[in-house]
Amino acid sequence: MSEAAITRALARFLATSRWEDVPEIVRHEGRRSLLNYVAAALSGHADPLIARLLRVLSPLSGARAATVVGQRARLDVLSAAFVNTATVNVQDFDDTHMPTVIHPTAAVASPLLAWSEHAPVGGRDLLHALILGIDAECRIGNALHPSHYRRGWHTTATCGVFGAAAGIGRLMGLDEDHMVWALGNAATQACGLIENLGSSSKSVGVGNAARNGLAAALFAQQEVDGPAQPIEGARGFIAVATDTPHPDAVVRDLGAVWEIRNNTYKPSPCGVVLFPVIDACLALRASHRLTADQIAHVTVTGHPLLLERTDRPDVTIAHQARVSLQHTAAVVFLYGAAGIVQYGQDCVDAPEVGALRAKVSAAVDPQCPVESAAVSVRTTDGRTLDKRVAAWRGSLALPLSDANLEAKLRDVVAAVAPWCDAGRLIETVWTIERLPDAAALMRLVVP
User: Fold this and answer.
1) Rounded to an integer, what distance in angstroms lies between the CA atom of residue 101 and that of residue 95?
2) What whole-number distance in Å separates Cα of residue 55 and Cα of residue 63?
C-alpha cells in the first residue's frame, strides 16, 4: 500500500468494519479488557487526585449526563471521559499493550461509556467500537515504536487520543471522510510526556487523550475538517513524533491481525517493568523463608528501561512508589504482596518499609530482555540468594486467566469499593453484547 493512503485506509476500515468479521477470540479479549478496565477504575476512585480533579471540573460542568466511577457526582460527557480515564490510570492498574507499553483501554472505553449515557447504544456496538479504537491506537503506536517512547513521549496519551477518536467516530457512525477528519483532529491534540511519570499530571495527560479524542470525533461530525494525511504526511504525526517510523504498521493486515490480542493485564498496581522484579522477590521469599531482618542488601538487575523508569530510592508519595523498584522489592519481602495496600501512602510512610528500601540498589544489564529481571539478596549470615525471572505473570507468555481477572476485580471491590456488587458487575461485562443499553454498566460502578 502507498504510504500516502494510510490514514484513509485506516479510516475506511474503522467506518466499514462488520461485527460478523470480528473473530470470537478477539471479541472475548475485548470483554477481558473491559473487565480489567472496571477493576482498574474502581481501584482508583478514592485516590486523592480524583477528588482534586472533581473540585476543579464539577463547578464548571455542563449538562450532568455522565457517570463518574465510584462517585455520586455526575459531569458533562467530555469531563466524565477525562475523569474516568484518570481514575483508571492513577493506580497504575490498567492494561498494557506489547511491545509499545501503551495502556490502551482507558482512553477508549471511558469516552465510549460516557457517550453511551448521552446517546444510548447497545452493548455489542460499544464492544465493537472499543476493539476498533484499541486497534487504531496500538497500530499507530507500532508505527512509532521504539524511539517515540524513548524520546520521552508518553505513548498512552499520544496514541490514546487516536483510539478515542476512532472508537467514538465508529459509535457515532462517521463515514470514511469524516473519520479521516476525526483522526486529523486527534493528531493535532496528541501530547503526553514520560517526565510526568511519578506525578499526578501523568494521569492528567491520559485523561486529556480521552476527552480530546471524543472532541475530535464530535468536531468531525460537525464538519470541522482536517488534513488528508494527518498520520503519514510529510509533517504528520509519524514524521514528527519518531525517529524510527514504520508507517506500514498502521494498516498491515487490517482486519486479520487484531492488536487487542497483544494486550496484557497487571496483577499488581505498578509500572509494568516491575513485574519480573515482583515475581523474583516473591520466589526468593517463599523458597528461602526470608524475613526482613535477614536481608543485608538487595540488588535488582534488569533492562536499561527498568532503571530509567523505576530507579527511585527516595519515595515519599504513593504515585512514586508505583514506579519504584526499591519500594516494590521492600514491600514484597516484608509483606509477601504488592497490592493496593502495599502501594498506598500508609505503606510508603511505614518506617520498616523505608528501612528496607534503603537496602535495595539497582544495576543495569544491557543484554537483559525488558520482560526479565534478576534479584540477588545478600543475607546477614553471609549467603547470596539469586533468582532470575524470564517472563512475568500476566505477560503474553504467562497471561492472566479469566478467573484471575475476576479475582482481581473482587479483590479491588473488597479493598476499596465494598458497596459494589462484584458478581453482578462481572456477569454484566461477560454478557455486554446482550445489553440493549450499554450505559447499564455504568450504573453498577457508583455507590
Assistant:
1) 9
2) 16
Contacts of 343 by beta carbon, 8 Å cutoff, 6+ apart = 91, 92, 268, 269, 270, 318, 321, 322, 327, 331
Q: Quote the distance between the C-alpha of residue 214 and its chain's center.
A: 18
Expressed as residue numbers, the domain containing 259 is 3-265+399-444
Residue entry with cell 480533579: 53
Query: pLDDT tens digits for 130-176?
Result: 999 999 999 999 999 999 999 999 999 999 999 999 999 999 999 99
Q: What's residue 414's pLDDT? A: 96
CATH classification at residue 331 = 3.30.1330.120
Residue 1 has pLDDT above 80, yes or no: no
Query: For residues 160 and 105, is the Cβ–Cβ distance under 8 A?
Result: no
Q: Residue 369's pLDDT band (boundaries 50, 70, 90)?
A: very high
CB distance 412 to 339 below 8 Å? no
Question: 300 with 250, same domain?
Answer: no
Omega before 146 within 30 of 0, i.e. cis: yes
Same domain, 336 and 230: no
Residue keyed to cell 462488520: 18
- Owner of C-alpha cell 531482618: 293
> Does residue 351 belong to any structural domain of this protein?
yes
Give the integer Cα–Cα distance in Å for 296 and 381. 9
Upper half-sphere CA count for residue 177 (Cβ side, 13 Å): 4
Contact 110, 67 (CB under 8 A): no
Q: What is the three-class DSSP state of 417? A: coil
pLDDT tens-digit readout, 181-211: 999 999 999 999 999 998 999 999 999 999 9
Assign 378 to helix, strand or coil: strand
Which residues have C-beta within 8 Å of that of residue 308, sequence separation ≥ 6? none
C-alpha distances (whole Å) from 29 to each of 2, 41, 169, 187 are: 31, 18, 21, 27
Q: pLDDT tens digits, residue range 64-75?
A: 999 999 999 999
Distance CA(10)–CA(33), nearest Å, equals 22
**Strand, coil or helix: 394:** coil
- Name the pLDDT band for 366 (thresholds 50, 70, 90): very high
Residue 235 lies in a domain: yes
Helix axes 123-144, 105-118, angle to 10 degrees: 150
pTM of the predicted model as reported, rounded to 2 decimal places = 0.96
- Both 217 and 290 in a single domain? no
- Cis peptide preceding 99, ω within 30 of 0: yes
